[in-house]
Write a sequence for this structure.
């Protein structure tokens, strides 16, 4: 039996069987999630504009449903005592609200989302569904992340 490597897409278990690596599992679930986003119209420009103009409940329902589902799953995983892949206890730590970094970051994110007409999360789903203009948005996001990395030492992260 060959030793698992980062290049080999499976991990050998104690019993000698193989199981997919977390990267492969994450990729598959990411593709499935992208399909759901496209089919539910969560990445559609007109749906996002409807949300920002308070003309439709569609996006608020999707986002709210995600919050409720994630909260319920986290509570269930805690109750069952599920641990992370490396055996540590799962926990979500509370973070204090700081208006300057949190509010400014949220405002910047929302402004970009509104101007673009798409959340940066599904860039790849949009590209995969044929919205090629998202290449420009993706390049802009990469440039923004690089800029933040350069400025981070001088920013007030409190």
């Amino acid at each position: 039996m060959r030793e698992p490597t980062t290049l080999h897409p499976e991990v050998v278990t104690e019993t000698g069987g193989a199981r997919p690596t977390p990267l492969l599992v994450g990729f598959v679930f990411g593709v499935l999630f992208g399909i759901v986003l496209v089919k539910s119209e969560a990445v559609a420009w007109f749906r996002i504009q409807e949300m920002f103009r308070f003309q439709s409940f569609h996006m608020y329902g999707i986002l709210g449903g995600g919050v409720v589902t994630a909260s319920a799953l986290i509570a269930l995983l805690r109750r069952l005592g599920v641990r992370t892949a490396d055996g540590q206890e799962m926990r979500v730590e509370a973070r204090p609200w700081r208006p300057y970094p949190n509010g400014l970051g949220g405002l910047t994110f929302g402004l970009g989302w509104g101007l673009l007409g798409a959340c940066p999360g599904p860039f790849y789903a949009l590209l995969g569904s044929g919205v090629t203009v998202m290449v420009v948005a993706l390049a802009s996001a990469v440039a923004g992340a690089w800029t933040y990395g350069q400025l981070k030492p001088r920013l007030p992260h409190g």
Notes: The two ends are 51 Å apart (CA to CA).
